[in-house]
Each structure stands twice: as C-alpha cells, then as structure tokens.
Amino acid sequence: MRIGIHTSIAGSLEKAALKAAELGANTFQIFSTSPRMWRASVPSAVQVKLLRTAREKFDLTPLVIHSNYLINLASSSEDLRVKSAESFRGEIQRGLAIGAEYLVVHPGNGKGHSLEQGIVAVVRSLAEASAGLDTSALTVLLENTAGSGEALGSRFDELALMRECASRVMDLAVGFCIDTCHCHSAGYDMATAAGLRKTVAEIERVLGIENVKAIHANDSKTPLNSRVDRHENIGEGSIGEGGFRRILNHPKLRQKPFILETPVDEEGDDRRNIETLKRLATR
C-alpha cells in the first residue's frame, strides 16, 4: 500500500521527501510554494535533482502537489479568475519541473454564479492555465469539498461534469482526489459499513473508480452532513477507527495512495497518524 503525509518544503524540496521517509511514508504531498502567496518561482535544477534522488532512494511515489489556497478557478470576479488561472499555470509548470505525478486543486467558490456558470468558469480556468503546455506527465486532480458556503465540488456529479467538459476542450488529464473528511461532511457516509458501500458505489458510478488517483485520509471533527471542513486525527473523529479500517481495506480503494492532512497539535502526531493507518490497513 501507499501511505503518506503532507510535508513542508521549508528549507528545500529534498527535506520534504526526507521528512516523509523519516515518518515512515512511501508517498507524500507538498505545496510547491507558499500556499498563501501569489508569487512563486520555479525550483532550481539542483533542488529538483536532489528531490528525485531522495524519492528514488526511499521509493516515494507518487508525489502529489496541492495548489495554493488563494486560487479560485470558479470565481465570478473575472479579475480573480484570471489571476487564479495564471497562478494555477505556475502550479502546473512547477509540477512538471519537479516531476510530480499529481496536482490537486479545489474547484473554487462560485459565489455570484449559478452552478452551471461556476463549472464553466472552472473549465475555462483549467484551459487557460494549461494552454500551450505539454502536460502529458501530470494529472490534475479535482478534490471534493465539504459543501460549506458556495464552494463547488461537494457533490460527485459536479466534479464529473467538470471533468467531462474539460475533456472536450483541452488535452489536460483530469482525475479526482477524494477527501474522506470532506465526503463525510458533505453527507457521504464514510463511517458505517453500509454507508461506505453506498459511497464507494456512488464514486464508481459517477466518477469512475479508475479516475480516483489519490485519497486524502482525514478523520472529521464534525458529524455526517455537517458541511464543515475540520480535519481530525485518524480514529478521533466521527469516521473513527472502524471506518478507516473499512476504507483502507476496501477492495476498490486499497490500491489508491492514502495521504494524511491531519493536524499536528502535539509533537509526534504526524508519525502516530501514519502508524495508525498502517495498523488499520493490516488485514
């Protein structure tokens, strides 16, 4: 199995990989730049080489990049949408330079748009961001959301429509990243055996299980259908250890990379969460 965690690039890209290996991970996720800044630069060839060497040494694959939090591909403000598309283009370019396999992005907030207009804005932004680039080595993953406010992507059919429309107008490969906390908060039961069976069947029917390339493994501080995005340590939230044992051992999910985005409130929380996933994944 591939079990990993989000690590910091503070210091260098190589340190992010080494930290993942130190914690016992064999896959990991990073921000390619500060998640709360628009400006960013492409990493140097030396940094990229050191990162690749570390990944090869410790068998760290896939590498997932999470796009920065300022990007809103669905924005009804044309200025912000264009700025977001430009910033996401930078994310694509860095992902290609670094050698990442996947680039995760939230569809964005469509306030001021109808649902259809918001989806059109997302697809338009993706098209502008990838125009003229050879993106064959990178897949963009649309992440499901918790459903708070007017954020798009809390329903699987919204994500599927974005991918379908994108496939008609660009060569960019688009898949999905499923967040367990977001699913549960959006009303897709991840905690019970019957709920998981129903949720996975819905993922398979609407998204296509083969299009789900990564899973963000996060317990939820809030209950089912709360529409609130609050990540919790594995086993300490409303999904619970039993829920994650079933998720990790589900035959349709077990081969997916599981990447933690859980809080680190106390020293060692990151390692404990990785160890908990490994324990629960043991058949």
* Strand-residue proportion: 5-15%
Q: Can you count the helices?
A: 9
* Measured distance between first and last alpha carbons: 12 Å
Provide the structure class. alpha/beta
| Average pLDDT metric | 97
- In the predicted model, the low-confidence regions spanning at least 5 consecutive residues are none
Major β-sheet profile: 8 strands, parallel, barrel
> Could you estimate the helical fraction of the residues in percent?
40-55%
Placed side by side, the strands forming the largest sheet appear as 1-2-3-4-5-6-7-10
* Molecular shape: globular
Structural description of this entry:
The chain has 283 residues and is an alpha/beta fold. 42% of the residues lie in helices and 14% in strands. The protein has helices at 13-22, 45-58, 78-98, 115-130, 156-169, 180-185, 193-206, 240-249, 269-281, and strands at 3-6, 27-30, 63-66, 102-105, 139-143, 173-179, 212-217, 219-220, 231-232, 258-260. The strands form two sheets. The chain has an eight-stranded parallel β-barrel with strand order 1-2-3-4-5-6-7-10, surrounded by four helices. Strands 8-9 form a two-stranded antiparallel ribbon. Helix 1 runs parallel beside helix 2 (45-58). The longest helix has 21 residues, at 78-98. The model has no long low-confidence stretch (mean pLDDT 97).
